[in-house]
Amino acid sequence: MLQLTAMQAAGHDTPIGADAASTLPHMNALLETYRRLVGKLTPLELAARELTEAELRLLEAQSAVEYAQSVVAYNQARIKRLKAVLCEMGKTQSSAQLAERGQMSQKLV
After folding, report:
1. Which of the given ranges, 31-35, 71-75, 90-94, has the highest pLDDT on average?
2. What pLDDT digit, counting tens, does each position of 39-85 carry?
3. Residue-range domain boundaries for the chain
4. Nearest-CA neighbor of 28 among 5, 55, 59, 3?
């Protein structure tokens, strides 16, 4: 009884023997690809897929944390700078106001 390979059944004239054996890895790869696309996953495959997805989500979350930390640091530095500016301007403004008041009081006398 002669058995046909999948390639022969599809119309390809591949002889049974060494050449047919060389197509076996390709057929297995094709079958695996088909099973991944449409077939049910084994528990091991599902766990591996979920692990990969969890690792990707972790990387995304770590990137978000790095961004948020940089925004926090930026705003802390900005607040420090603005407080220093306001403090310096307050001192300068106070001196200017005192000088102006002194000139006004001299005019009144």
Report:
1. 71-75
2. 788 899 899 999 999 999 999 999 999 999 999 999 999 999 999 99
3. 18-108
4. 5
Please, how many CA atoms are within 13 Å of residue 57, restricted to the half-sphere of its CB? 6
Check: CB of residue 14 under 8 Å from CB of residue 7: yes
SS (H, E, C) the chain: CCCCCHHHHCCCCCCCCHHHHHHHHHHHHHHHHHHHHHCCCCHHHHHHHHHHHHHHHHHHHHHHHHHHHHHHHHHHHHHHHHHHHHHHHHHHHHHHHHHHHHHHHHHHC
* Contact call for residues 63 and 71 (beta carbons, < 8 A): no
Is 0.90 topped by the overall pTM? no
Is-contact 5 23, C-beta < 8 A? Answer: yes
Distance CA 85, CA 98 (A): 20
